[in-house]
Design goal:
Elements (H helix, E strand, L loop, with lengths): L4 E5 L4 H12 L3 E6 L11 E4 L17 E4 L12 H21 L4 E5 L13 E2 L10 H14 L4 E7 L1 E3 L5 H10 L6 E4 L3 E2 L1 E3 H13 L6 E5 L5 E2 H12 L6 E4 H10 L3 H8 L3 E2 L2 H5 L8 H14 L1
InterPro entries: Epimerase_deHydtase, NAD(P)-bd_dom_sf, NAD(P)-dependent_oxidoreduct
GO cellular component, one term: cytoplasm
Pfam families: Epimerase
């Protein structure tokens, strides 16, 4: 019996590349769905060119596919994009691809949504899927709208709502923290600093495989994170330990930290660092999810590997 065939979008990005490698390492066949011939299908068994905006052309791409894993889209970091862009790519293209998968006889459609479909950059209390969704920006709203569109289709679906994903090749805020951790200088840290749920890319792979193999009908969103939420000071300590840096953090009162960050045009970054965002992954764990690495170990390894390059 041949291994299950998974169609995967987003294989040119940080998350998609990692998922392709993880799926193949666990015995799956991976068909990369690429937008253009020049894109590299990293770690995939095969590749098919198709336009997500016109999925009528995706019939060949989805032939014999068991599960579609859709990780492509406009990232939150792409600030300044018009709301219509987020809607067209994160919402409309997702729903259109799911419809194409449904027509092709796919068993399940897995959508990489975001915690930002659930909440803003910080939240009081522990966030679960039963918390009424309250996205605060165009990115989060586009992800939530895609989930709502999937719920109207007949195909079985699940939406993973990951928190900040990190691992080799990560960009954005985590890459900035990694650069800071590798510096020889003390790093300003708000006191008190927020506790944040993070997600190692290895644990994301585990979550995706959990939903691929889950029995029965899913048709629901699932928050996903590592088990252990850390405050920002602990995150930086783990990164510094991996980078071989013993320099302590420089504590700054949180109100002053936020004021300085706003003055520098980095208000949301300050909110992320001084505010909490802790999620409950009980729903996903009930389906069999079990993180394979701790946050501290994965952060230290990330910094260690980056330092050795």
């Amino acid at each position: 019996m041949s291994a299950p065939l998974v169609a995967l979008t987003g294989t040119t990005g940080f998350v998609g590349r990692a998922l392709a490698a993880d799926l193949r390492a666990h015995g799956y066949r991976v068909r990369a769905l690429l937008r253009r011939p020049s894109d590299e299908a990293a770690a995939a068994d095969s590749a098919v060119i198709g336009d997500l905006a016109r999925p009528v052309n995706m019939a060949r791409a989805l032939e014999d596919v068991d599960v579609v894993v859709h990780s492509a889209g406009i990232a939150h970091a792409m600030s300044g994009r018009p709301d219509d862009d987020y809607r067209a790519i994160n919402t409309d293209a997702t729903i259109a691809l799911a419809r194409a998968a449904e027509r092709a006889g796919g068993r399940r459609f897995l959508f990489l949504s975001s915690v930002r479909a659930q909440t803003g950059p910080s939240a009081a209390g522990i966030v679960s899927e039963t918390t009424p969704p309250a996205p605060t920006d165009a990115y989060g709203r586009s992800k939530l709208a895609a989930e709502e569109g999937l719920a109207a289709l007949a195909i079985d679906w699940a939406a993973l709502r990951p928190v900040l994903v990190y691992g080799p090749g990560v960009k954005g805020n985590m890459a900035s923290l990694l650069r800071l951790a590798r510096s020889p200088w003390p790093i300003p840290v708000p006191i008190p600093s927020g506790r944040r749920s993070l997600l190692a890319v290895e644990n994301l792979g585990e979550a995706v495989r959990t939903l691929i193999t889950a029995e029965g009908t899913l048709r629901q969103p699932c928050l996903v994170a590592d088990d252990d939420a850390l405050d920002v000071a602990a995150i930086l300590r783990a990164l510094r330990r991996g980078a071989g840096r013993g320099m302590p953090n420089l504590p700054v009162p949180a109100p002053l930290f936020r004021a300085l960050a706003r003055a520098a045009g980095r208000g949301e970054v300050a909110e992320r660092l001084s505010g909490d965002l802790v999620v409950d992954t009980s729903r996903l764990k009930a389906l069999g999810y079990a993180p394979v690495v701790t946050t501290e170990a994965a952060l230290a390894r990330l910094a260690r590997e980056a330092t050795s390059e």
